[in-house]
């Protein structure tokens, strides 16, 4: 176990990297980036300029020792860059982006010397991305500062994507196939952080190289399924999205961290499953503290459009922050279907029902300020028929009344995978 209050934790990191003690190296690196108490206290109290100077002296010393010295020099350089990034992060320096990119690019040497640590290091450093963005936004106090922060964020995105692409080229050249999905996951993560969902799909390695599923570590496949599930959700491919997200949820361990991940997955799995006709239990919503979905599920089941709109508006900012606001509008389709089913049941499952019956039901189910017209009701029911959520057709009789004729069991669910929501 590394002592966090040792005289020089950076020297320990450099030494363990040089000697190939990967487990200890990972512990020290994690303790620095996560700002663990002992490490944070030590690094705050040292003379940072003096430490940086000493590391530079060591780098110069190793440069005179041939091949072994050249390897050692690289680890000194990595330690220097890590320390510089830490110093800029803690001080809130505007140089933090340059420090971060330099450190991230330097991870390449792990592919040369410590490939078993490469995945851990890339994931650990990539986690810092959101912290940097958050810090830049917090420091932006005026319009000019916001503009600079936005430009810096774009630069960070481009540089990081390019660096990951460079890593992928090296991984391909060296035939480290087990690292490909991990790197593509980090690229998708960056796109999701910037709400560029349409861009994330082009970094899907498994889509292009399906054989990678046999060599990719399980934890990277689980991460892939999370991002793939969300990509498919935004493409309105709800059936496949549900399969990917359910896979992630099923693999969440019964630990504090596992429950945290499970809650994150359920934020998207619950609304996706509504399109499959599956609703969560109240016990599950309470267990994961996701009661904001309670009213959504209940109103969709009941076909209560008015209450559904209220439930959506109540948590509108939450849906926006989760990029779910468009999906919430799409969920109204199932609410309309269930409302139409109620009318059918009230009419004792008649196969021919006057559209005025549906019109009255729609009026009752909408607020006074948002009353639908007959043409709008026809349009909604027509869309439900087009999606095969109702098996029937609309026609106008000789008496000029509009009717909905239906099959014997018009609300029998079509297989979820057969519904084309992208129409």
Describe the structure in your own words:
- α1 runs antiparallel to α5 (66-91) and α15 (238-250) runs antiparallel to α16 (256-274).
- It contains 23 helices and three strands.
- The chain is elongated.
- It starts with 8 loop residues before the first helix and ends in a 17-residue tail after the last strand.
- It is mainly α and 423 residues long.
- It has a three-stranded antiparallel β-sheet.
- β2 and β3 (402-406) form a beta hairpin.
- The chain has helices at 9-19, 22-33, 37-45, 48-62, 66-91, 96-105, 108-113, 115-126, 128-139, 143-173, 180-193, 197-200, 205-208, 218-234, 238-250, 256-274, 282-287, 294-302, 305-314, 316-321, 325-346, 355-365, 374-386; strands at residues 352-354, 392-396, 402-406.
Largest sheet: number of strands, sense, barrel closure: 3 strands, antiparallel
Percent of residues in helical segments?
55-70%
Quick one: overall form? elongated
**Strand arrangement in the largest pleated sheet:** 1-3-2
> Kindly state the mean pLDDT as a whole number?
85
Q: Got a strand count?
A: 3
Count of helical stretches? 23
Task: List segments where confidence is low: pLDDT < 50 over at least 5 consecutive residues.
Answer: 1-7
Give, in order, the helices and strands: HHHHHHHHHHHHHHHHHHHHHEHHEE
Structural class, from secondary structure content? mainly alpha
**Approximately how much beta-strand content do the residues carry?**
under 5%
End-to-end distance, in Å?
58 Å
Instruction: Return Rg in Å.
Output: 28 Å
């Amino acid at each position: 176990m590394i002592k966090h209050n040792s005289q020089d934790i950076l020297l320990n990191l450099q030494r363990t990297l040089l000697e190939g003690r990967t487990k200890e190296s990972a512990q020290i690196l994690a303790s620095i980036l996560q700002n663990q108490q002992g490490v944070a206290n030590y690094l705050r109290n040292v003379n940072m300029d003096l430490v940086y100077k000493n590391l530079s002296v060591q780098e110069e010393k190793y440069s005179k020792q041939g091949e072994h010295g050249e390897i050692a020099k690289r680890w000194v350089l990595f330690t220097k860059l890590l320390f510089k990034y830490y110093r800029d992060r803690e001080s809130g320096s505007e140089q933090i982006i340059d420090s971060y990119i330099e450190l991230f690019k330097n991870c390449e040497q792990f592919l040369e010397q410590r490939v078993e640590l490469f995945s851990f290091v890339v994931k650990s450093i990539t986690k810092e991305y959101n912290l940097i963005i958050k810090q830049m936004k917090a420091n932006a106090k005026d319009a000019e500062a916001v503009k600079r922060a936005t430009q810096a964020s774009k630069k960070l995105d481009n540089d990081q994507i390019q660096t990951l692409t460079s890593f992928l080229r090296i991984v391909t050249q060296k035939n480290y196939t087990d690292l490909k999905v991990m790197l593509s996951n980090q690229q998708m993560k960056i796109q999701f952080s910037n709400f560029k969902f349409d861009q994330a799909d082009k970094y899907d390695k498994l889509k292009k190289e399906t054989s990678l599923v046999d060599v990719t570590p399980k934890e990277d496949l689980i991460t892939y399924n999370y991002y793939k599930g969300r990509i498919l959700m935004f493409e309105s491919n709800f059936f496949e999205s549900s399969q990917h997200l359910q896979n992630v949820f099923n693999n969440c361990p019964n630990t504090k961290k596992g429950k945290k991940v499970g809650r994150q997955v359920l934020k998207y799995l619950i609304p996706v499953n509504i399109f499959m006709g599956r609703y969560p239990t109240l016990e599950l919503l309470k267990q994961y503290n996701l009661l904001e979905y309670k009213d959504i599920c209940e109103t969709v089941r009941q076909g209560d459009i008015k209450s559904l709109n209220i439930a959506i508006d109540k948590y509108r900012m939450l849906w926006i922050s989760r990029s779910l606001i468009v999906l919430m509008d799409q969920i109204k389709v199932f609410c309309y279907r269930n409302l139409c089913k109620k009318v059918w049941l009230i009419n004792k499952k008649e196969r021919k029902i006057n559209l005025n019956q549906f019109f009255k039901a729609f009026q009752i189910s909408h607020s006074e300020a948002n009353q639908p017209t007959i043409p709008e009701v026809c349009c909604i029911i027509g869309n439900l028929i087009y999606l095969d959520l109702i098996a029937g057709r609309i026609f106008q009789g000789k008496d000029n009344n509009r009717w909905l004729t239906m099959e014997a069991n018009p609300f029998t669910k079509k297989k979820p995978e057969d519904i084309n929501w992208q129409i």
